[in-house]
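Kindly go through one protein, given below as sequence and tokens. The question is how this chain folds according to its tokens.

***
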Amino acid sequence: MNVRRIIHKAVAVSLLGLPLGGGTVAHAATASLRFPCSAPMHAMVTCVLRGWGFAARERVAITYHVGARTPANGYAWMTYRRNAVTDAQGSFVRPALRFAVDPRVLAYRVDLVARGVRDDRATISAFGTP
């Protein structure tokens, strides 16, 4: 970090009335996600994850909790862990996530958490029923 940035941050923090020695400054943007999923085709669902508002060039850990409904009105849960790296604007796009559902029920639920190494965090859920 260069001296100009340090001085700029000190001036910004002092103008906000925060102590110069500590405190935290939140990111201007809030981390957000978009997670559209297709209708089950041949008992397969395809979902694409897009994220924005994370810190630039940040590693993001992504956890998908996928529940496929069973004929007995329960769920068969699977967990997938993936990573992404944001671009200079703090955005990323993951390759499509594909998972199978029971062809007799065709219902599912996906809970997703994306967490950046700089404490950026976003969650989203998706579900589908016939």
